[in-house]
Amino acid sequence: MEDVGVETTGLRRRVGPGETSEPRPSPATADAPSPPASPASVASELPSFWKSPLQYLFGPNPPPELLAQVLLDDMKKEYGALCPAFEPISFRDAANLAKNTGKFLFVYLHSEVHDDTPRFCKSALCTDEMVAFCLEHDNMVLWAGSVLQSEGYSVSLTLGAASFPFMSLLISTPRGLNVVEKIQGAVTKEQLTARLANAILRNQHHITASRAQEQFRTEAQILREEQDREYQASLEADRLKAEEDDRRRADEARQAAEEAARLEAERAAEEAQRLQKEREHHARAATMEAKRAALAHGPTARGKDTCLIRFQLHNGTRLERLFFAADTFQVVRDFVDVSLFEKELPIVNYELATNFPRKAWGPDDVSSTLLDAGLAPQALLYVQDLDS
Description:
UBX domain-containing protein, Ubiquitin-like (UB roll), alpha/beta, coiled coil, Glutaredoxin, 5-stranded mixed beta sheet, UAS, 10 strands
């Protein structure tokens, strides 16, 4: 198994039997590609059907994906549709694809200027047998590159391509890409498929180990991602719980503040009502005191000019007072007001009425005298609450 070590590409070369690890100068042969002096010199070697449209669209360095697709299309036009399904991607992407999927990487370096290329493509590479072999051995990623392009030329140097046609089978290891088979020259389709089959058989355990390692890494990555998701979910749950606790505390604080404000408003309203009632009581007490003082000048004994009035309240309470017959109902109401105030009976709006015959004197009938009302010398009046 060969192992080419080039740091920039990740390829390593294992020394085969009979070889030494010392670098050996490659003999100058007509098969070895000449290094392109510049992008312009590489472009000058391109066939015209490649060079003109690609340089017009992309300049001197078209993207490797486009070059890979153009090479595949041109090979199908030139040698028939039975070409292996080369990936239209860059070499680096092909190597990564082989690594990530645990497959071999089959590399074909195409030299448009080599004499053996047309015969090899028609009789070996682009044949039913090779296509069937690739379909049967689906553990290979297929990549082709032109040595007249910078990427293909760089890969040819890395793989040590000394003659053409050139093919190589590689595997991915933790240290990089290893060459497990190198096929050079115009081999037959039988030789090509046989050497590839033998190389695959010899190195299948490497692929199996690589797949196991990749599966282990994938499972470890999945586990880490799952743990990270669980950790993030836990953080999110903690964050949501903290937000919910903050909202709950804020709601409780708001409700407590609202309740305190409501109680304070009620207390203030009750205090204002109490003060208002107190003021009203003081004012009413002062009024009652004035009325009581005026009533002190009433008659002290019954006579022809007096009138005895008995009052009956709704709760059965009875009152009695001797008035002058010429006293108005205002004097009578003053007596009733003072009596109700002293007994703490909440009656303010009332009328005075006889039972039979039915007569009533309300708050507006204050100017009539007892004599005019026909109540002298005595009468029974019912105090009727107009607000009840």
